[in-house]
């Protein structure tokens, strides 16, 4: 017991038997957290499903107001960020610090791109009175689209769901940017290697889940 | 302690999956422009489920992961399914169940409104005017 400190790696905490056990425990904790995230979003998906089954024609009509090009672009951007984070983990496992850092920075930049596109989408809607809740009052004409045509009963439900779901998803993207900043700084300090990359792995899992949520939001809100 | 090697996904496989995900995204945008009647929604959802499965199985490496994580994820999905289906059992059939009279609540409301808007019966008015 006296010399227990001398023969274990710096990242291994005392209450774990081995690095492997510590890694597995952290990862299982992350999966449990992801399940709570899935349940958080499933509440909103249930709201969407219920209101859509009640007013399917209103939802289909309202979805036309959202730009599938912008939504599709953001889908590709998020898929690319999932790809780079998976590459980052690959390089961490291969002890390639440069590859890890480059891919983490790329992931951050893709996340930023996603939010910039979302900013333009939101402001274009706000300009024409498409707000969530009581302020909903579509008006004006832009790019040949008469917004007043979308001021129909129950359209407010669709747009409230749109803003809340994409808003909470966008907040998760913002949190992801913070996480990747933190992970990138630690990677630059050389804290990660094939023996210890748990934080990279778990942030990657979180980021993939944010991607998966968007994979469902995109067709539900923009396409159908 | 035996050290189990972590699975390392090859760059080639990750690239192929990324290519597949981009292809499916383009496919879902294009098929949404077609009028497939009732098939548009199921098709879009089928593509989304396929994409999400690729991300979970390959990118999140659940395929090579400790099986307990797959169980946790599966139980999560099970509860989502319970959440959605039990809510729909209510919202899809409101007014159809537990009625003591014929027809749905909507039918009864319509019938009630029709009765209220009906011209009053002359005999009934006369009857009501008879002093007690």
Task: Furnish the topology, listing elements before pairings.
The complex is a heterodimer of chains A (224) and B (132).
Chain A: H1 19-54, H2 56-63, H3 68-93, H4 97-127, E1 141-142, E2 145-146, H5 155-188, H6 198-223
Antiparallel strand pairs in A: 1-2
Chain B: H1 11-33, H2 40-59, H3 67-91, H4 105-116, H5 122-129
What keyword list fits this structure?
heterodimer; A: 224 residues; mainly alpha; Four Helix Bundle (Hemerythrin (Met), subunit A); two-stranded antiparallel ribbon; 6 helices; 72% helix; elongated; B: 132 residues; 67% helix
Short description:
With 224 residues, chain A is mainly α. Chain A has helices at residues 19-54, 56-63, 68-93, 97-127, 155-188, 198-223; strands at residues 141-142, 145-146. The relative contact order of chain A is 0.16.
Report on this model:
The complex is a heterodimer of chains A (224) and B (132). Chain A has 224 residues and is an all-alpha fold. Chain A has a single domain (19-223), classed as Cytochrome c oxidase, subunit III, four-helix bundle (Four Helix Bundle (Hemerythrin (Met), subunit A), Up-down Bundle). In chain A, 72% of the residues lie in helices and 2% in strands. Chain A has a two-stranded antiparallel sheet. The longest helix of chain A has 36 residues, at 19-54. Chain A is elongated and about 70 Å long. By secondary structure, chain B is mostly helical. Chain B folds into 2 domains: 1-65; 66-117, no CATH class. Chain B is built from 5 helices and no strands. Chain B has helices spanning 11-33, 40-59, 67-91, 105-116, 122-129. In chain B, α1 (11-33) packs antiparallel against α2 (40-59). The longest helix of chain B is centred in the middle third of the chain and has 25 residues, at 67-91. Chain B starts with 10 loop residues before the first helix and ends with a helix. The model of chain B has no long low-confidence stretch (mean pLDDT 87).
